[in-house]
Amino acid sequence: MITSELPVLQDSSNESGAADTVSLSVSVSELEDPTDTKGKKKRGRPGRPPAANKKPRKSPAEKATGGAKGRKANGVPQTNGEGGDPVTLFEVVRMGKSAMQSVVDDWIESYKQDRDIALLDLINFFIQCSGCKGTVRIEMFRNMQNAEIIRKMTEEFDEDSGDYPLTMPGPLWKKFRYNFCEFICVLIRQCQYSIIYDEYLMDTVISLLTGLSDSQVRAFRHTSTLAAMKLMTALVNVALNLSIHQDNTQRQYEAERNKMAGKRANEKLELLLQKRKELQENQDEIENMMNSIFKGIFVHRYRDAIAEIRAICIEEIGVWMKMYSDAFLNDSYLKYVGWTLHDRQGEVRLKCLKALQNLYTNRELFPKLELFTNRFKDRIVSMTLDKEYDVAVEAIRLITLILQGSEDALSNEDCENVYHLVYSAHRPVAVAAGEFLHRKLFSRHDPQAEEELAKRRGRSSPNGNLLRMLVLFFLESELHEHAAYLVDSLWESSQELLKDWECMTELLLEEPVQGEEVLSDRQESSLIELMVCTIRQAAEAHPPVGRGTGKRVLTAKERKTQIDDKNKLTEHFIMALPMLLSKYQADSEKVANLLQIPMFFDLDVYSAGRMEKHLDALLKQIRLVVEKHIETDVLEACSKTYSILCSEEYTIMNRVDIARSQLIDEITDRFTHSVEDLLQEAEEADDDDIYNVLSTLKRLTAFHNAHDLTRWDLFGSCYRLLKAGIEQGAMPEQIAVQALQCSHYSILWQLVKITEGTPSKEDLVALRRVVKSFLALFNELLQDQGPTLDRTSSHVSGIKELARRFALTFGLDQIKTREAVATLHKDGIEFAFKYQNPHGAEFPPPNLAFLEVLSEFSSKLLRQDKKTVHSYLEKFMSESMSERREDVWLPLISYRNSLLTGGEDGDRMSVTSGASSKTSSIRSKKGRTPIHKSKRIEEESSVEASWLRGNDNLQTPGALTTPQLTSTVLRENPRQAADTHLPDHDSEPGSENDYVHNPQMQMSWLGQQKMEDSRKDRTAMNYMKARNQTVRQTVRGLMEDDAEPIFEDVMMSSRGQLEDMNEEFEDTMVIDLPPSRNRRERAELRPDFFDSAAMIEDESGFTMPMF
To answer: What is the distance of C-alpha 457 from the center of its chain?
Structure first.
């Protein structure tokens, strides 16, 4: 029987009261008689020689000196002094220079010579592997109990560091963990035939590990649990071998006994009986050891407070159940894994799932797992939505294994919970769900029979039914904008199906044969969309946008596959695409998708394969599509296709360019005549005249976006249309929009020519004249239309969302971005009021709507800066503007409110009373200010007064020792605080330190505005100054014990700023921007990023950019 404490091994001189004590002690008298008093014969281990023949044991002092000369410890000669070879088992294993087999063999040899000394070395090995600096000496080993030894070793820990070998980073300690586990496994393997049955080694080791695993010290508990679990794994392996030997012995015995009496060997039967009995006894002892470890360590540590310890237990029990399923794969052990599926740490849940995967991989074990599956299936299915992506991936893989083992194990609802994950933005989750979907719906159960059926129906591929099922799945999922995600999810598991483009085109072009259903219009559209996505995936060889972290470098094998796929799809669709366009040319949705295919072609195949006739067929079909459709998507797809086919690097360019020019000539000719007819008929123009102009203009605008059409001089006709619309006031809005776009593209193409070449003076003058006429025309149209803005439209919402995301890039450190944000508001206000409404002052300015976008950046202003910005805004506002409440004035109202709101009433008052926020902040502090800080407070008062008065040496309050007070209130020494403003003599003029500590260099637009405001209302400022001094004198006695520097306006930015961020950006804070890059950009931010033209010189002559 193995207990948590060892039976005492007493000296003959210390017998009184020792019968009931429990310790790790070892005595000489016990060792003299290797056959103990239990009356049980030792198995597999020869008896020790008589005590008279033993060499006298050396004292520890002798061992520490030259007494150990000639004896090897763990395969390495023991040496003393620094720089020698390793002298302890821990050092040997840590360095890993010797093979673990030889290390263990040497230890076994030393154990046979002197087992207590060898065992003491092993005990110290476990102690030192825990990171303990102490050593168990022979006296402690002999006279102290387990708890006393562990308590003594606890005192030897290095308190300065919480790290220990199993948690230390780096490859050395990672290798040590591997060597540590290997040492235990090899030790048991080498001792499995003799030493582990001597009722001494294993009793001592298991008792020690049990005691350490119950320690309050994490290092002891972690290390001993890992050692015990690896020890248990090794014992399970020994038990499995014993079971195999027992079965073999039993078969031999049965075979010998069944022989005829004359041929039966009785001596062999007796030997087999004796061997079977000995194996059974060994098996009983091994089971006793395993029970001690399981009940003494595992049952307590699988629910340890430390996740790493729980993970070790679950990982190893999975190994036991797989290794020795007959003994461990039952509900008594599976329940621990099932319970731990609910662990709060993802690391432990992950170990559970991987342990179960190893079991479900073996189909022979499914009957033993049936009850467990029924009990915990719902939990496993729910884990596919785990917040830890790694756990969700492994849960889906486990569900897939369950599906492979038993089709009936999962209900339809269980499967549907996994199906929708193919649309997950996290690619590993989606790929795992794609594997499940493939196993469930798209795997062929009888490929040979399906191929024969396809041949009888006249099909070249047996995947027709699977493709139909894929289309149905896509339609039922109702996520028609995510076809690329579905294809990417199935790409690794169903490539054969997804690359079967021949079967796809057969389904689209040919009539259904007997036994096949006709594809509906929606099914055809979905199949085309999926087909285009598979072509893109094959040609680009990377996931769609939104999946993955970017394009990765392809391996040589992947690159070869990509080239082969691109050649295969090009050769097929060069012939099939014209036929598909011909069949579906009337359907704008299908045609727009089909026209994306040429961009993935290897266009060299046209000339290399002499397939120009297929190119002509494609160009003919594209021309027909252009003539038939006026939808923007279709026309842009046609324009892009022409642009790709006209690439100068391909020999087919001339042929395509001729076809494109002929098409533009015809469209331009029709457009010119249509414009003439429309202008002549003027108000008498009918719908046909308007349609002719609009249809041709749409086509030309779509082509002008991607092609240089300046030689057709489309600007002149568009200008005439717009001019006539302004004069007559009856131009349809769609025609005006298209004419503006076409004119815009014409100007851009002319600018491209000028920038890329060497234009003449005449060309520049002509372009300038065109641009001026266009701008004048645009302004006239804008004035006629008026400031009508739909604040609920998707365009406005998109701009506001973009502004919100831009605001997030400023980060949480408002001090560093203070000037940048303030200048952004200044420029935004000036832009909003730049132009006056021509209809009168009672109408809002044309750009006033920009204030609604600008309000997204108000939360990035410091609270004290909101007052300054608000004052600047009021300079542009008339008295009537502040009283208007119509919808057209809502941008001004919302922006103004964003500057007035600060989260507290005091913040609102700070707009009109500069002392309100200061007073509120001071009152919120507890304690009393030390007397030696009174001077510091007066200095702050003078600084604030200069801020309000607007002195020449103005410095914003946020700049007072600002960098270290943005997120945490720092306590600093008053003397150090007094030195914070001293210039750094080592820094160069104009450096960052110079910028931080030089008040003149910090003066910017904010300072200028505060100077102007203070000059306008000197009386009010003096009142606020007097009030600040009164408040400061009142509370000074309450703050003498406060050791924190009083920078209220700065310190509030840490807490109050975050609260404002949560209130105003709650729905956008999930955006995960790269923090390192943002920090770098913010650190490099300088005022001259905004207006480098405006320069100001200080008194010293140093020139710096100002806002």
So the answer is: 49
Tell me the three state secondary structure of residue 35: coil
User: How far apart are the C-alpha atoms of 914 and 1017, rounded to whole Å?
Assistant: 12
How far apart (Å, rounded) are the C-alpha atoms in residues 513 and 518? 9
Which one, of 844, 850, 833, lies nearest residue 880 by Cα? 844
Query: Which of these, 225, 198, 200, lies nearest to 211 by C-alpha position?
Result: 225
| Short-list 429, 507, 428, CA closest to 466 | 507
Which residue matches tokens 């001597």? 198
DSSP secondary structure of 610-661: T-HHHHHHHHHHHHHHHHH---HHHHHHHHHHHHHHT-TTSTTHHHHHHHHH
d(CA 428, CA 488): 11
Coil, helix or strand for 1090? coil
C-alpha closest to that of 292 among 202, 413, 367: 202
Nearest CA-CA partner of 657 in 643, 670, 669 = 643
Per-residue model confidence as pLDDT tens digits over 482-515: 899 999 999 999 999 999 999 999 999 987 766 6
Estimate the share of the chain in helix, then strand, then coil, as percent rounded to the nearest 5. Answer: 65, 0, 30
- Nearest residue to 795 via CA among 743, 849, 856: 849
Q: Is the C-alpha dihedral spanning 1019, 1021, 1025, 1031 positive or negative?
A: positive
Phi, psi of 1095 (to 5 degrees): -125, 150
Could you please report the per-residue DSSP string of 244-306? HHHHHHHHHHHHHHTS-TTT--HHHHHHHHHHHHHHHHHHHHHHHHHHHHIIIIIHHHTT-SS
Which residue has 């009918």 as its token pair? Answer: 686
CA distances from 316 to 177, 186, 731 (A): 15, 17, 80
- pLDDT of res. 1005: 57
pLDDT digits (tens, 9 = 90+) for 13-23: 333 333 333 33
What does the longest C-alpha to C-alpha distance in the chain come to?
133
Spatial separation of the C-alpha atoms in residues 629 and 699, rounded to whole Å? 9
Q: Which amino acid makes up residue 187?
A: L
Collapsing DSSP to helix, strand or coil, 504 comes out as helix
pLDDT at 376: 95
The identity of residue 372, as a single letter, is F
Intervals of the chain under pLDDT 50: 1-84, 903-1003, 1019-1021, 1023-1024, 1027, 1030-1107
Strand partners, 72: 77
Taking a C-beta distance cutoff of 8 angstroms, is the pair 682, 700 a contact? no
List CB contacts of 366: < 8 A, sequence separation 6 or more: 360, 405, 406
**Percentage of the chain exceeding pLDDT 90:** 39
Verdict on whether the full-model pTM lies above 0.70: no
pLDDT at 267: 82
